[in-house]
Here is the input.
Amino acid sequence: MASILVVDDEPAICSFIEFEANELGHKVFNAYNGLDAKEILQKENIELVISDVLMPKLDGIELLKYVKSEHPEIETFLLISGFTTLTKAKAMGLGATDILEKPIDFTRLHRYL
Here is the structure.
């Protein structure tokens, strides 16, 4: 069982990923913006982060930078969004494990859960 942090400003996306992860026995924490995600990361032992890119307060790219700098033990960081090629290249260069485009392909997501 892994502890997973799902970060998206769309509660329905968080709920859907949470359901999939719970079905596999994982513990899920939801945050609706990057600042709330940082608070959870400081309190919980998170093993996987799944984050949207475009969010209020702190976007997914900035959250990725924070995780790689402050929580290097978290090896898997997935970004989800409607990416442009530039954003994909930047995210992978910053250490994102993979990029899942919306609508989310849950077969791909399950590889990481």
About this structure: The two ends are 9 Å apart (CA to CA). Residues 3-110 form a domain with the Rossmann fold fold (CATH 3.40.50.2300).
